[in-house]
Amino acid sequence: GAVVSQHPSRVICKSGTSVKIECRSLDFQATTMFWYRQFPKQSLMLMATSNEGSKATYEQGVEKDKFLINHASLTLSTLTVTSAHPEDSSFYICSASSGGARETQYFGPGTRLLVL
Amino acid sequence: GENVEQHPSTLSVQEGDSAVIKCTYSDSASNYFPWYKQELGKRPQLIIDIRSNVGEKKDQRIAVTLNKTAKHFSLHITETQPEDSAVYFCAAGFGYNQGGKLIFGQGTELSVKP
Fold first, then answer.
1. Which helix (H) or strand (E) is B88 found in, with range?
2. Which residues are bridge partners to B100 per DSSP?
């Protein structure tokens, strides 16, 4: 149980284009999903908390107009990197919490983004 | 906000030895402390977690201890095996009803030599 998927697993795009990443909870309903960015050999940096049916909460320093988050259903959250630039190249990972009394976050497999 | 410091950044042990990774956190309100294992290019996998109402938890070769007064917690792996080699992350956060946000430590690259 508690499986989280992400799509695509990797994407290469040209500078200036937008890229959408999907995060799905496959066998549970996730009222809260989290988006992280991870640079090589570094830790997971929380970008934003995504709550179903409401606006995402962004961490300090994360541009909400650049990283658009939509959590339209209890099993799907999307992250759109708008007008991507080479410095946005990174490993983006989502996690989902099944809620209730459990705080456990289950992670997706990640999306490797390369902006040329 | 919460800040989590993790040490050491790299750790090399011989197979069969024990490994200890330590973390400190800044926000005394944090009440949930998970540990994740991440292999290269893979997703982080939860290996053990502890809540603030417990001082120690064990699961086979893995144990975690929590000292709320000192605001630090540690991961102990006994009888290490080569397949334990990975990057380990600690995290501190709040329960689901308080947002469920986690802040991660910098990670420890564990290498277990056969």
1. strand B86-93
2. none
Report pLDDT digits (tens) over A59-114.
Answer: 999 999 999 999 888 899 999 999 999 999 999 999 998 765 557 889 999 999 99
* pLDDT one-digit tens code per residue, B79-108: 999 999 999 999 998 765 666 889 999 999
Q: B-chain residues within 8 Å CB-CB of A30? A: none
Q: How far is the alpha carbon of B54 from chain A, nearest alpha carbon, in Å?
A: 15
B34 and A44 within 8 Å at the Cβ level: the answer is no
SS3 B74: strand
Single-letter amino acid code for the residue at B58: K
User: Which residue type occupies B71?
Assistant: K
Q: Do A43 and B104 touch (CB under 8 A)?
A: yes
Q: Determine the pLDDT at residue A8.
A: 97
In this complex, is the C-beta atom of A101 within 8 Å of any C-beta atom belonging to chain B? yes
